[in-house]
Amino acid sequence: MGLFGQAKDLYKLQKKAKQIKEELKNLHIEAEVEGVKVVINAEQEVQEVSIAEELLKPENQIKLQGLLLTVFNKGVKKSQEIAAERMRGMMGDLGMNMPGEGELPAAE
What we know:
The chain is an alpha+beta fold. It contains two helices and three strands. The longest helix is centred in the last third of the chain and has 33 residues, at 61-93.
């Protein structure tokens, strides 16, 4: 493949990556653990947080802190899995296989 062909492929890749980035920005992923819910887009930006009223009591502070860590990590992991899946699909569409293709764990 000549330089022109490579440049054309690079342009296609950039265009497709931009399209996927927009799709990911608009894709919202929910994660919930024991009354704490977060909504994260696939670009890993937090969109919403809700906490059950019971967890806001002072005696539940330590529990709430642990739940927040758990739910945020769960949401970020889901968003990473979805973004990786979309990128693998894009690379496959362009005839480029990424290492580990087909080894992606299913999102919860």
